[in-house]
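Example 3.2
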Amino acid sequence: MTPQQAPATFQGSPVDDTDGEPWLGYIRVSTWKEEKISPELQRAAIDAWARRTGRRIVGWIEDLDQTGRNFKRKIMRGITSVERGEAKGIAVWKYSRFGRTRDGVPVNLKRLEDAGGQLASATEEVDARTATGRLQRGILFEFAAYESDVRGEQWRETHDHRRYKLHLPATGRPRFGYIWTPRRVPDASSPTGWRIQEESYKAHPQTGPAMADCFRGYVDGEGFRPLTFALNEAGHRTVSGSLWCVSTLIRYMDSGFPAGLLRIHDPACRCPVEKRKYCRAEKLIPGAQEELISAELWQSYLERRKEMKITPPPRPGRSLHPHQFDQAR
């Protein structure tokens, strides 16, 4: 059975284990480039473990390019399969493949073991049925969480360097209205295969003015829906190639990026690092990208946005066409 054909979960009654205990093989390839252990290597190690211990891999679950810092992954299907009696346990290349979070690992490991299942590492000889084995496994999980913390700190340092030193977005990627010159580009003549250059965002000759027209149109009284319609009618698409929708346009215009600004978490805020993505304490700082609109137009945009947020909707009883309602907003 090929990886594409292998089921992640199983239907029917508990499988027969006369030819060896039925286990699931779980493969996770990390988002961290230094830890991108190939699926083939992980699969081979798990297969070897199964032959060595008399187990039988009855299905594979793969989470490719997935972080271990949460459990919003297909691994949960494997735990459900064990709870249904469809497998005796889950085998991983290393325990770190299961997860790298201090809260999620114990919760989901307990759920697996409460169902009578086991978690086994193909390359770490640990007998979790003993107190010593459980201690060893706990140390391995703690070390995995420590590595994750270190890498998280390195990412934050990189992001902060880009924001505060280079005045660039935390992550380099295309933005509508701009020609993006990435910092690293393929170069066959280089010994490393890459060439490093100055990263920049220059105004695009077609999409730059189109985004500026959206700001002018909104300040002049147009609503976001007709502005979105105009972008799509002109053949403009988002950087992912999708049609524009109202929420996407609002989010991009509100970001301030077309005005040459970067929206960041307010450094004065003392919220925990892990909570920052939910924190609403934000601040705008100057960016290194070219401005698509003037500071005056940006200020006018903010003023109308504030005005529209406090303007009550039309009174009941007066029927408005959706286009008219957007114009009113």
